[in-house]
Amino acid sequence: MPVYRDEAVVLRTHKLGEADRIVTMLTRQHGKVRAVAKGVRRTASKFGARLEPFMVADVQLWEGRTLDVITQAESLGSYGTLITDDYGSYTAASVMVETADRVTESEGSLQQYLLLVGALRSLSRREHAPTLTLDSYLLRALSVAGWAPTFTDCARCATVGPHHSIVVQLGGVVCDSCAPPGAPKVDAATIGLLGALVEGDWPTAEAASESTRSKASGIVAAYAQWHLERGLRSLPHVSRESS
């Protein structure tokens, strides 16, 4: 069986038998990989600790018929402990890894990998409010996956904005002519925040009021769940206290 190495971020784990664990990872070069970590539940080993959710590691694997086998793991980013120590960061990170799991397959995406690692690193360092980091990650991950929203020109006819109606099913803001009856009107501050989150304009994002952040989060959640076609299980648990 061939051996290969790659960088990986751990998305989730499941128990297997008495001592093993199945680890689902998003790798830099091989896409999403499910592999067995043998014996990691017998002792509190450093090997097992490097393969917990939100951790980034350099892993060596044996290629198997159905599941690969992890033979080595060296830590590259010990974000797990720092993230789980803060509830807001933990709930945000849980949504991120669930989203990454949903938008990536075996062929993978270097952009999705780098985006997730950067977002987890930012959470662990408390660079921004967790909900701002989460909302920015969701919009960017969906953009990379082919569902880029527009918060400037009309998503339907491309009429130059600004516009004040948002329809998530159509891809963002729409002009008055394209807006269906009853389409919600959104204030300029919220639309401005959504645009800043897509662009990574953190000074603008952090200057937004609590009310504006809350409205933007609702729109981001609706947009994500519409395009992913079913709900994100982790999303209802996200803490909004530090947003």
TrEMBL record:
It holds the Pfam family RecO_C. Residues 1-79 form the DNA replication/recombination mediator RecO N-terminal domain. InterPro entries: ARFGAP/RecO, DNA_rep/recomb_RecO_N, NA-bd_OB-fold, RecO, RecO_C. SUPFAM superfamilies: ArfGap/RecO-like zinc finger (SSF57863), Nucleic acid-binding proteins (SSF50249). Keywords: DNA damage, DNA recombination, DNA repair. The keyword DNA repair applies. Belongs to the RecO family. Involved in DNA repair and RecF pathway recombination. HAMAP family: RecO. This is DNA repair protein RecO. It comes from Leifsonia stereocauli. The lineage of its organism: Bacteria, Bacillati, Actinomycetota, Actinomycetes, Micrococcales. The gene is recO.
